[in-house]
Amino acid sequence: MAFQIGDAIFDFAQLFFDLFLQFVDLLLGYLQGVLIELALLIREDRHRAGGL
Asked: Angle at CA 46, nearest 5°, toward 41 and 49?
């Protein structure tokens, strides 16, 4: 009985850890997209201003 409860707690903890990692991965992907967009906007602005 105690072994089954321990397994359930471990599975629950593993589920939350997996969800946390997925959330971090999603957040990092979003931040990467924002940084790329920002870099493109800066480049476009420099191009319009006559820079390189």
From this structure: 125
How far is residue 52's CA from residue 48's CA, in Å, rounded to a whole number? Answer: 9
Closest CA to 43 of 32, 34, 52: 52
**16-42 pLDDT per residue, tens:** 999 999 999 999 999 999 999 999 999
H-assigned helices in the chain: 2-49
- For residues 52 and 46, the answer to whether their CB atoms sit within 8 Å is yes
Whole-model pTM: value is: 0.67
